[in-house]
Design a protein that fits this description.
There is one protein chain. The radius of gyration is 15 Å and the shape is globular. The chain has one domain: STAS domain (Transcription Regulator spoIIAA), CATH 3.30.750. Helices cover 32% and strands 21% of the residues. The strands form two sheets. The protein has a four-stranded mixed β-sheet. The longest helix is centred in the middle third of the chain and has 16 residues. By secondary structure, the chain is of the alpha/beta class. The N terminus and C terminus are likely disordered. Belongs to the anti-sigma-factor antagonist family.
């Protein structure tokens, strides 16, 4: 089991729960879950690197953390999926819910570097056309053996 982490601004984290502000220099607040999620905020965008399986066990905590990130991100939220080995329909539902919440806030969500299994799942479900996702062209996606 991995931990679920998100970087937060010192002021924002301290205002919500001073005891939860991590002592590490990366200013990381922790919550229990299955996916690690460090966030790197820039003025116009936020990059969130997900680590771990994007599945039913990780979905509740991931949903809560992504909602929190949306409150403080710029006009673009980039979800780096390069360290996500797998996902299922529950994980995709969290991504779709995040997309809808982001759209209501005027935020664009982009999925970057999904692995083979996740890229195939996004393609099969048609979500590769919904998200701003630089995927391998469908003709080059090979089914998992």
């Amino acid at each position: 089991m991995t931990t679920f982490e998100t970087a937060a601004s010192v002021a924002g984290a301290a205002a919500k729960a001073p005891a939860e502000v991590a002592k590490a220099p990366a200013e990381v607040a922790k919550a229990p879950a299955e996916v690690a999620m460090p966030a790197h905020r820039r003025p116009a965008h936020t990059i969130v690197a997900l680590h771990g399986a994007l599945d039913a066990s990780a979905a509740p905590a991931l949903r809560e953390q992504l909602i929190g990130v949306l409150r403080h991100c710029g006009r673009l939220l980039v979800l780096d999926l390069s360290e996500v080995p797998s996902g299922d329909e529950t994980g995709l539902a969290v991504l779709v819910g995040t997309l809808h919440r982001a759209a209501a806030l005027g935020v664009t969500v982009r999925l970057d570097a999904p692995g083979r299994q996740l890229a195939e799942l996004l393609h099969i479900t048609g979500l590769d056309r919904v998200f701003h996702t630089p995927l391998t062209p469908p003709a080059r996606i090979e089914p998992a053996a």
